[in-house]
Amino acid sequence: MPSSGWLRRLLLAVTASLPLLAGGGCTITPLTNPSPLTSATQDAPALPPYTFQRMNRQTYPPADWPEPLGADIYLPDTPGRTRRPAALVVHGGGWQNRTPQDMRGIAERLAREGFVVANVQYRFAPKYPFPAQLHDLQQAMAWLHRKADEEDWLIDTDRIVGVGYSSGAHLVSLLALKGAEGALSQPYGGDHARLAAVLAGGTPSDLFKFDDGRLVVEFLGGKRAEVPDQYELASPARHISPDAPPFFLFHGTWDRLVPVDHATDFHALLQQAGIESELYRQPLRGHITSFLTSGRAIGAGIDFLKRQGLTPAVPPE
After folding, report:
1. Phi and psi, residue 274, nearest 5°
2. Which of 50, 77, 105, 279 is the least crowded, having the fewest Cβ atoms under 10 Å away?
3. Residue 212 CB: number of other CB atoms within 10 A?
4. Residue 181 to residue 171: CA distance in whole angstroms
């Protein structure tokens, strides 16, 4: 997990850059000394009362998988023996780095809402180019289905949602749209890979929109002119169909790394296809600050999931 010193230096650097983007007429209130465990939910409202148990680094792929990937598991103490919804949580990092610790605050919040949470690792580019990362998530979904009937898990497999930020948001969006059927469903997808909804922030929705920068080129194995089929296959916005699940998108309006039109265009395409979609804009936030201050967006996203019937039906006692 990032140290508090690392996070403080990051925040200071981001805060220092904001006036350069804002121009002369805007006052910015700096963010100061967030807790490293709660920075992603620092502006969140009070949490629901479910407690939970956490199991770190549970290996989810089969023994012969190229990497022994782990998932941090959160099991909420919900009353009775009712089946619970689950959340597959996926971190960002340009498909090349970072860890599930980045999503710990969001994972804990979902567990307190009554979700069984799997906060997963996945393989990184360029050593493992696309679609290796999607294959990892398909394996994670198969693992959740295998665990669903166990005493401490009790997952309702019809209520598994995908939650991610940045490259993690890209991966859960692609899983929701192409992971169960079609070209990307083989050899590891299928019905077990279906998501009931997606909560995604800072989502790279159409990879053709990026210049031929290193991260996308190494992820897809070439430039747009060299491997256009890969860019097409890896772009969630190009795979929307009427049977897609509901999407909740949040995005910083000052995001220069993944510009906000990735969200606005994706949202419009989902609505045109008749898919329930909600877009939560985060004013004056860039790519990093929209994540570090995502508490209200996550709260709105959980409310969206509740409206889809995707949170526990039995309230805490």
Report:
1. 80, 15
2. 77
3. 11
4. 15
Please give, one letter per residue, the 3-state secondary structure of the chain.
CCCHHHHHHHHHHHHHHHHHHHCCCCCCCCCCCCCCCCHHHCCCCCCCCCCEEEEEEEECCCCCCCCCCEEEEEEECCCCCCCEEEEEEECCCCCCCCCHHHHHHHHHHHHHCCCEEEEECCCCCCCCCCCHHHHHHHHHHHHHHHHCCCCCCCEEEEEEEEEEECHHHHHHHHHHHHCCCCHHHCCCCCHHHCCCEEEEECCCCCHHHCCCCHHHHHHHCCCCCCCHHHHHHCCHHHCCCCCCCCEEEEEECCCCCCCCHHHHHHHHHHHHCCCCEEEEEECCCCHHHHHHCCHHHHHHHHHHHHHCCCCCCCCCC
Q: What is the pLDDT of residues 4-62, one digit of tens each?
A: 443 444 444 433 333 323 333 232 222 223 333 333 334 444 346 789 999 999 999 99
How large is the greatest C-alpha to C-alpha distance in the chain, in angstroms? 59
User: Omega of the bond prior to 187 within 30 degrees of 0, cis?
Assistant: yes
Domains in the chain: ranges and CATH: 45-307 (3.40.50.1820)
Residue 302 phi/psi, 5° resolution? -65, -40
Q: What is the dihedral of CA 51, 195, 278, 286, to 10 degrees?
A: 70
Paired strand residues for 247: 198, 277
99 phi, psi to nearest 5 deg: -140, 170
Q: Which two tokens stand for residue 1?
A: 């997990």
pTM (2 decimals)? 0.85
